[in-house]
Amino acid sequence: MSARTHLPSGLVTFMFTDIEGSTRMAQMLGPGYRPVLSEHRRLLRRTLSESNGTELFTEGDSFFIAFSDAASAVDACMTAQLALSAHDWPSPESVPKVRMGLHTGLAEAVNGEYASPEVHRAARIAAAAHGGQVLCSAATARYAAPLPPQASLLDLGLHRLRGFDDRERLFQLVAPGLESQFPRPRTDASSHNLPNHVTSFVGRFAERSELTSLTATHRLVTVVGAGGAGKTRLAMEVAGGLVDEYPDGVWFVDVATVTDPGLVAFAIAAVLGLRPEPGRPMSDTLVEYAASRRMLLVLDTCDAQLNASAEIISRLLTGGRGVGVLATSREPFSVPGETVWRIPPLSVDPSPGGGPSDAVALLLDRTREARGGRAVALAESSDMQRVVSRLDGLPLAIELAAARLRVLSAGQLAERLDDVLGTLDAGRDDPEQTYAGNGRWVASQLATVDLTKSPAAPAARRTTTQRHATMQATVTWSYRTLGPRAARLLRWLAVFSGPVDLPTVEWLLDDDPLDPLAVLVDKSMIQAEPHASGTTYRMLDPIRAYAARRLVDAGEEQAARDRHVAWSLHALQKAHLGTDGRPVTLSLYALDPLADELRAALRWTATGGSARAGLQIAGGLDQWWRERGLAREGRLWLFRLYGRIAETGESIPEAELAAAYHMHSLHAGADGEFAEELRFSQRAEGAARRAGDAGLLARVLAGRGAPLVDMGQYTEAERACREVIDWAGTSGASGDALLAVYTLAELLWQRGALDDAADVLGAARLVEASRAAERGRRSVDFLLGMVALGRGDLVAAHDHLVVALRSRMSYGYHSRACDAISAIAVRCALGGDHRTAARLFGAAQATRSQLRSAPGIYSPYWAERQAAVRVILGDATFDEAYAEGGTLTLEEAAEEALAVDHPDMAVGSPRFAA
């Protein structure tokens, strides 16, 4: 008590100490704890006696001491820590880790004790320290000079002490022999450790809202997606908006920096300011700490240590009700209570308000940065859209593309994206060196990471950056976690250019793919997209490019692509046949979803596969190319296939060559290349004659009239048509001469021989109905409608043309639908509805221009009738109605044409004359 009568007053430095984890140590050491505690007290008291400190009380493992000057207090702490660390303790587990806190302030002793908030502040500073650490307030730092030799005070920044409203600047005593690496102080210094980003967050308004809502209502939400999909950035953006909802903070941990599964709990603990307790699993310490707190953990890249992450997350969630986890991973944890949210690519569709899509907005923003703040020219907008569409809206790919736009225009970049990886990764480090999975480079980097520090340490940040340095490194991170079956499936799926369904995958592998497919979906290498008709599976283009490289490296490209070609032929066959295996009316709509796959198959047949198979695929697309305005593309593929034949010497049957040349002739005619049309028509005839197939020869000869018509040789064309019709009749191949019948009817209609044209067509109706490939066009009805228009018979014209237009739209014959709409426009004009006629003329011409259809035999007739309507309406009214029609889609124009009243319903109709 005598000491208490001499307690310092005025400017007093208070010191608190205790042993970190003393309760755990006592349990572990049992009877051996008391000698350790006694020796700890002896060492501290000896130090205090030498430094003029006054011991106010000792309770258990704690000391409360007062000093009359700050320098003595700092020196006492340093001496005590050095004595504790140098002492020979019975075992490593029995070494006491003592934390010490100092604060200096004005205080007066009353009745042998201090009643001052400065005492409580000192106690809170000690509680913020870790075992072996000495912390002091700014006041102590100010009055502590001179410091002991070689000692210094490290500024740890501003921290909010528990129970105090203001923030205190804390300093750590650093000196030779003292431990220097500690987690952040255990204070309320900050309610989060979310990294600050130097780039803006662009778009994803709907995704942010949805993920925020899920995180608020579910305790474990896993954001799953492919590498580079933007999972981390979105999760941190959402977490940043939830800081105020978690009184115990929002804490970010990058699991990618953890090299061993057993260290996941340590990485989380380090962020929370926890240190290992002797003889106790770190996970137990972590769960105990979190049990009474309400906080959100943001665990990033958990796929780096998936099982270990899942285990510690499960323990945290069951250990307390206030902990929430927002995780990012390339695959889900598959633990109870998990809500899996798959991040979609950035939208490539324009925003509802007419602004750019999220993907384009991101590319514009990053390109502006890459070009020194200069805005992107409006002329590049369409090419920007091409770029983001080619990259499937993948944020990392867009970021890398923006870097390329330092030296390329958007158009140049778009042209180079056939090689996605080569273009985006150009000029960057070797992807294998930047791989951040199991590679030795990363292991060597992580070996230097001290997990007692924040995972935001420089070495850890380098690892995260390197993981996304190139697209190849990003995908390799996931690829190397795949088993043999899943890796093979990924490689083989690279031959598809678009989504596939489960039967297609089964067909490709000739095996049950469900298990490896599930693995790829879980690891976000494949996107599963549910539909009412079933789930389809899609690979993002950058991942497809990577898988295609691996396919070549594995020596499997020839087999996989040949299998894809076989599937393409099988799919074409299915489009022509019903479920009973019999031919059905050909619908070009059935070919639309196959187009990209068939192009991919054609590319292979023209470069590394069988040209014969390529000609068969081209034959299946014959009418589709012309009806979609792609006749030129069809010609180019055929030229490539001819070159492949010449290169390999592959033997092609004459019949198949004849069919290809005949198709080529029709494409050339549709594309306005009339000399080429005639040349390939002649080649087709030669090959057909060598093949000795009468039906084939009839089909080829039936097309001979078309090039003659296109070159204006109408008399020769009519003679050629009559000759082939007669020859086909005597040869038993009348049905194969249908094209000659159509051409002859057109020629007869053109020169006004309407009765003859009607007779020819009447005989052809049953033939057309029997041929699945032709009947959807309803050419007979269309031509009979044209004959009726020539006769002025509006009732018959209406009936035939409506049937033709409805069928052509139903089966996808868009180019021919334009002719039917133009014919109905004439029928409206003849019926007195000139404004509707002008609108339909405008609509038909707009679609014809989009399809790049060459003017046909009806072109002068349409022009003549349009001129007549213009005269009646006047230029202004006609142009207004024509322009209105030009804004209609083909579907809208067809709907309007089909809605035209039947002539019998018109005022003055003979039906109502009575």
From TrEMBL:
Looking at the record, the residues that make up the Guanylate cyclase domain are 13-126
Q: What is this protein called?
A: Guanylate cyclase domain-containing protein
Organism source for this protein? Phytohabitans aurantiacus
